[in-house]
Write a structure and sequence with these properties.
With 255 residues, the protein is of the alpha/beta class. It has helices at residues 12-19, 37-45, 56-61, 77-84, 98-108, 124-130, 143-152, 163-168, 212-222, 234-240, and strands spanning 34-35, 49-52, 68-69, 91-94, 117-121, 139-141, 156-159, 175-176, 203-206, 228-231. The protein has a five-stranded parallel β-sheet with strand order 1-5-4-2-3. The protein is globular. The two termini are 24 Å apart. The mean pLDDT is 91.
Length: 255
């Protein structure tokens, strides 16, 4: 799947309303309220979306089921939250440190999402574990292991980068779906149902460096895929290792 039309994120209407003065932009520094584990669970039961702001490896090591991983350290944190959640979403934040939650809501204010944050889990994942709550894990896979498994045991690979990145060079047998296409956008319905990889398959998910792939994995988990591996280092590591890539025309492009 390589065709891709320009998408407008669902949150674009929120941004337009702010630019037109129809929705106020937060002028003071927003503050996220602390939540107990029980409060967070109750809010999630009512439909709140948990944004796990930690690094992909920390998310993979243990996360709250249904949480969406968008790394706070990424330069596009707030934009990516806007891409992967509906415009009217309400959020719970989960971070390594309480102060990270305040940084996250501050960044979300730039696109008008701060008012939709109901709070953060005080104490983070340690508090969640300490309350005896369930965790889910995601395996991490280096590019050498990926190359070996692709050659020996039928592992599938899903590339979740943009169409331009895909066309510039990708793994020849990879499937492609931009992670932003997995969820509904203003101008297009969710495409995740069109993914042709069976839900029973083992899948290595790859992006440029391993951040967007972890976000994509969190979306795939919410839709029933289970045997997922985040490819650490992504296509940058794959190319550095000298493994084969082809361009949009199927011609080798890194030899």
């Amino acid at each position: 799947m390589t065709g891709e039309q320009p998408l407008k994120p669902a949150n674009i209407q929120n941004i337009v309303a702010i630019n037109q003065g129809k929705k106020p932009l937060t002028m003071s520094v927003p503050k996220a309220a602390p939540l107990t584990v029980d409060q967070a669970k109750g809010l999630m039961s009512d439909g709140r979306i948990m944004i796990d702001c930690r690094e992909s490896t920390a998310y993979g090591g243990g996360h709250v089921p249904k949480a969406i991983n968008v790394q706070l350290s990424g330069g596009e944190f707030e934009q990516r939250v806007g891409w992967v959640t509906p415009d009217d979403s309400r959020y719970i934040l989960l971070c390594d440190k309480d102060e990270d939650a305040q940084n996250a809501i501050f960044k979300m204010a730039f696109i008008g999402l701060d008012s939709q944050v109901d709070g953060y889990v005080a104490g983070g994942i340690k508090a969640w574990m300490g309350a005896g709550q369930q965790l889910q894990t995601v395996g991490q896979m280096d590019v050498h292991t990926l190359d070996h498994k692709l050659k020996t045991n039928g592992l599938q690979v899903l590339d979740v980068r943009s169409a331009d990145e895909w066309n510039d060079g990708h793994i020849a047998i990879a499937h492609h779906m931009n992670y932003t296409s997995m969820v509904p956008q203003l101008t297009a319905p969710a495409q995740i149902g069109n993914l042709t990889i069976p839900k029973s398959s083992s899948i290595g998910v790859v992006c440029a460096t391993g951040q967007r792939s972890s976000t994509a994995i969190s979306l795939l988990l919410r839709h029933g895929w289970e045997q997922l591996y985040n490819v650490t280092g992504g296509m940058a590591a794959w190319e550095d290792a000298g493994f084969g890539m082809v361009n949009a025309d199927g011609i080798a492009c890194n030899i």
